[in-house]
Amino acid sequence: MEGSESDGGRVVLVLVADRVVEADGLAVRYGRVSAVDGISLSARSGEILGLLGPNGAGKTSVIRALATIVPVSTGSVRVVGHGLSDPMGIRSSIGVLPESNGYPTAQTARSYLRFFAELFGLSPAEARSRAEHRLRQLGLYDTAEDRIATFSRGMRQRLGLARAMINDPAVLLLDEPTLGLDPAGQEELLGHLARAAAQDRVCVILCSHQLDEVERVCDRVAIMHEGRIVAEGTVDEVIAVSGVAGIARLRIAPDDVPTAHRVLRASPAVRSVDVNNARPGDLDLDLDAVDGARSAVLGRLLDNGIEPRSFDFQGARLSDAYRALTAADREASP
Amino acid sequence: MRASALTIIAALLGLTVLTGAGAPAATADPLRDTLTVGIEPATASLKLGDHLGLHITVANHGATPTPPLVIHLDVTDPDRTTSVDPEDWTSTLSKPVGVIAPGGVKRIDWNVQPISGGTFAAYAVALSPGLDNLASSNVVQVHVAEQRALNPGGILAAAIGMPALIGSLLLLQRRTARRTRVRPTAQNG
Amino acid sequence: MSAAETPAVSRSQARPKWIVIVQRETTDLWLSSRGLGVLLAFSVALGVLAYLASSDASINLLDARESVGVVVKVAIGLGALTALVVSADAISGERERGTLEALLVTPVERRDIVVGKLLAATTMWVASLLVAFPLVLAMADGPGVVADAAAVLIIAGGLVAAALTALGLAVSSLLMSNRASLAVSVTILLLLAAPSQLPAVTASGTLNSILVKANPVSAGLTLADNVLVKQQAWSDQVPYLVSPIVATVALTALAVAWSGRLELGDAR
Q1: Engineering a disulfide at C105: which of A96, A194, A218, A302 sits with its beta carbon 3.0 to 4.6 angstroms away?
Q2: Percentage helix, strand, coil for chain C under 3-state DSSP, each rounded to 5
Q3: Touching B: which chains, 3+ CB pairs < 8 A?
Q4: How far is A135 from chain B (nearest CA, A)?
Q5: What's the pTM?
Q6: Do A116 and C102 touch (CB under 8 A)?
Q7: What is the CATH number of the domain that holds A276?
Q8: d(Cα A56, Cα B53) in Å, to the nearest integer?
């Protein structure tokens, strides 16, 4: 859907919920090694897409392929309407925060941002203005004249994000942006991303191992394993696909544990039962994603004369789905 | 028998004449007996870097002309305290002087420049290609005094000044770079 | 301020990107300890040599032209080495420091990156010249020597330095490791410089003469000797200018051509 609006004499084309990143059959090979094995994904403006996967899954290769700094073996990529035949067009439209993010330590934050702003084609005056804006936005204004060598890890990540956003990109590609940050730093950085997506309609593609942060901030996730996407969708959709309903902690009389263990293991609603040896009477249940799983468990207990003292159910988390999906893919692989 | 003895004696005489014909015809006497080689001055005292003029005379006291002669100059350190390479003193170590008539004298001038301090012995020899003897001169005692200017040509200002300036800039730069701010933990992120 | 509110870009006033890179690289080189550290080592070595040469000249072991000639030749050799050391770090050093990827994802032509770094590395040679000039001035015994020395440093030295800088950059583009880049670059320099110092090569002979002229380093050093010490005319030195010019053009073209293959070291 497209529209236009007038803003102080300028007509601004508004692309609402438009796909700005499209990869179809994307494959990246390094010699004989297939890092990305023909994946297809898309992302829209204003959306935050989380790219998850264990080490070696191919996440970084996807980011680098979209950024046009590694050659694509097969498949097509379009970023903000630019194809791989127009790498300059793609690079002009994106901002990248790589995982191995080094900085010239002798430079100041201000000069660093001005330099990159000019590389994106801004005049010196405009580069100064843009740099000041991003420094303020990322909380680095007061330290702008300090050498980057004096910056903490968190400050460097914010500086990296400022650099990635210096050209007002339509797409942000971030590889482990919160790596090494403390919880407050992670929260702050994710906040900036959420604001960029919500206010500036930036499409954010985020690689991370931090499943809880992905769950918090991402609109959609794609789970990668050995170069393939094994699940894609919203967090709830991915959890549903994984077949994991959730974890429940059941407390019963210690004498009833053997009976409960037997009857629950036989229940189709229960994937696994673990006796908690540290707390007599406690059982940890891994419930299957079927309707009425919880009531089925409670019903079976009552039918066998076991009265639950407490039943604490936690809905499935993304981490549970991630483990289940990657394990399943591992088992299914030849 | 008498004829055989005569034959043998004639053969021996003839052999002597033949071997005698192979010897240089110019003189039958060794060079040292017919030539006088002199080198002046007898002693010299100079400073390092100065030039020294050596004057060599070769006189033929023999009754026959000399063979073609070559004068060779050598320098050595008799005390073996300093390594001397004659080629460092002069690029020409040998000069041809040709044939000297009976009673004739030839003079050769040589310019040398010592490159190290100490006491040295310089001498010349006259020899001829193919001859297995030579005539040598007296020895010149050469005393060379060390001299080194502390600031030759005013070079120190630049030779020390440039590194000092650059080193100062480097120190200043490092001090500036080492300036750090203590950042509270709350800001670490 | 959202992206929509960002002031319009006046792209007509944007500077060429290679100039932006030259400025940034030059500032980095001289603001960090790297540039001044290398220059300090150069100035100490040349200063010691100039002092010893001047001492010999003062006691007539060398005449002024010979002593200036010694210093000028060493300045060319060492000065070109300093530029080579800087250029050999230009790309491989960025890889190791993790700063290359951020540069590669910008809309800058790879050749602009290489040209910018090449020009920035040549500032090392310019700085070496500025260090050598005062020494030459102090040692020269007349404006004729100064003029000849300046011309030799700028022309012959400049060409030799330009060729070696391009060599270092080309090697740096290819090799993933900074140490390997430096080792290979310096080894090539030594292979080029060493033969010119061997008596067998400097002796007369057609083959030797060709070898000397074909090697850009030995050609430059021989030109320095011919003009400064032997006081030969510049018009006779054209054969000694050919290989430095050819090497500069060819190696620069190679470095720019290889720029299209710039890649990350850990991309695999």
Answers
A1: A96
A2: 80, 0, 20
A3: A, C
A4: 15
A5: 0.75
A6: yes
A7: 3.30.70.100
A8: 84
